[in-house]
Amino acid sequence: MNKHYDVVIVGGAVIGSAVAYFLAANPDFDGSVLIVERDPTFRTASTSLSGSAIRTQFSNPVNVRIGLFGVSFIKAFAETMEVDGDKPDLGFHEGGYLFLANTPEGVKTLRENHEVQVACGADVALMGPDELKAAFPHLNVDDLTLGSYGRSNEGWFSNTGLMDGFRAKARSLGADFVADEVVAIGREGGKVTTVTLKSGAVVEAGTIVNASGPRAALTAKMAGLDVPIEPRKRTMFVFDAANSPEGTATVNGGRLPLMIDPTGVFCRPEGRYFLCGAAPVDDPAVPFDDFEPRYEEFEDIIWPALATRSTAFEAIKVINQWAGHYDFNVLDHNLIVGRHPEVQNFIYANGFSGHGLQQSPAAGRAVSELITYGEFRAIDLSEVGYERVIENRPFLEKAVI
Predict the structure, then answer these.
(1) Which of 126, 83, 76 lies closest to 106, judged by CA?
(2) Which of 2, 50, 182, 339 has its CA 20 to 30 A from that of 292?
(3) What is the pLDDT of residue 90?
């Protein structure tokens, strides 16, 4: 580890590693990069505990374009991230997403979202009840009015594979990683200058990138700044179905999509099992070390919704569960990517609110562009910059799960 780096990234999970990769891989960037990661096991990182899916079905064009780039990057990941002949396979399962609606408001939202998605080039189809039943025979469609199905460029993949691939490639291109914790950030007026590590080392920094996930507010506070991010707990359940409907679809080779029920409960295949979850009824901020699953959510919220939606889900058994943290943006549940307007060499890459894994390729590229060129180039992320936090101007996205 050197005493000075052009860019110091605080946080080494998928967002920080993506930023490091895109900087190191950019021929127009000739600086030095250091990632500081407090827990190199990533045991409780949001990346490691994620449901690991990607979609293009959003309501805002920015998020749709982020998803489209992300899936194209994931499809080419093995070749792009090759290091010494090792090509990381993310096991991308292109199962699609299926949003279901049963109210006039829900139908209106799906139709409006569909117009945006198609205009951006997403491969999404609207389906009435009869079409839904024909495509997915196990579903109870009696109460449904409309569905929105991603026919391609949506699915799920290896979460740690994405992170590890970014990190290995960035290292091979010259980025440095250190297992340590940032405990202080030096600042002189409108400029951050150093990071002090728990080990006692002080590193000079030309630019600091906050990629601290749920701890983003702690990192910002060390620089005398704020960001409206807090940890929110989400419990994931894996269940076995006595009469699994996987393979019964008449589209996509029989593969079932990730289904989002009108209740907000989601469910998707996971090998021979299924993965599911739901937003909790009460959703307070939690301590950084609270990873106790909310076991009651399965019986109280998830199972009743799934059993109503499909007789195939009446007889199911939980075989595993875990809890992870969203880096929850309390302003608008969307990413914050950009410079602080008063401290220009402090860059936020925070607040993904459950979308960090799928948005990491676009976010990493955007931060690298901001550092290298002083502007966004491939996708203009100005709408999700920090200025909207100061102005209390939410970024509208209706398709938040």
Answers:
(1) 126
(2) 182
(3) 98
